[in-house]
Amino acid sequence: MHKDCERIMLTEEQLRSRVREVAEEVDKAYAGKRPLVVGILKGSIIFYADFIRHLSCPVELDFMAVSSYGSGAVSSGKLNIKKDLDKSAEGRDIIIVEDIIDSGFTLANLKALFLERGAASVVIVTLLNKKDRREYDIAPDWNCFDIENEFVIGYGLDYDERYRNLPYIGILKREVYEK
Ligand code: IMP
Ligand code: MG
Predict the structure, then answer these.
(1) Which tens digit of pLDDT belongs to each residue from 66-91?
(2) CA 16, CA 58: separation in Å to the nearest integer?
(3) Any catalytic annotation for residue 27?
(4) What's the longest Cα–Cα distance across the chain?
C-alpha cells in the first residue's frame, strides 16, 4: 500500500468484479443501440477503459474535460469546459462515465448541456457515489459503489494530480492534505 494511504477502501479484485457487473447491466440496456460513451477527464480514465471492454454493443468513444472552479478555491458556480466533445451530441444516446459524484455540480451541468444540445438520451454511470455530499438534484443511473464522505485516491482519482495510477481505491491520509 502507498505510504500516503490510510487504508485500502476497494481492492483491485472488488473493482474488477463490480465494474464488470455494472458494465454488463449497461450493455443489456443498450442492445441494438450505438451509444456515445463520454469519459470525463481525467479521473474516469481507468474506470472508463475497464468499463468499455465489457460492452458488446457498438460504442463510439469521446471525452470531455471540465472544471467547476476558476483559478481560486471558490466555486464560480459555472462549469468550465476545458476540452469539448469531438462529436455532435445531437440525436445521440449518451453514456457519461465519471469517477465520482460529490456535490453533483459537474454531472447536473453536463447532463443539462447534452440535453440542450439535442441528445436523444443521457445516462450517468459512475464508479463512486458520495451520497451525503449531494447539493444538486442529480443521481447516477448506474453506480458501482456508495462511499462515505472520505477523500479517496487511485484508480484514476487524484489529489493534486497525484496517485491516479494506484490500482486500488485508497483513503488519503489527512496529514497529506492538511499540512
Ligand atoms: P462534483 O461536481 O462536486 O460532483 O465533483 C465531482 C468531482 O470532484 C470529481 O469528478 C472529482 O474530480 C472530484 N472529487 C470529489 N471527491 C473526490 C475524492 O474523494 N477524491 C478525488 N476527487 C474527488
Ligand atoms: Mg473528475
Answers:
(1) 987 644 445 556 789 999 999 999 99
(2) 22
(3) no
(4) 52
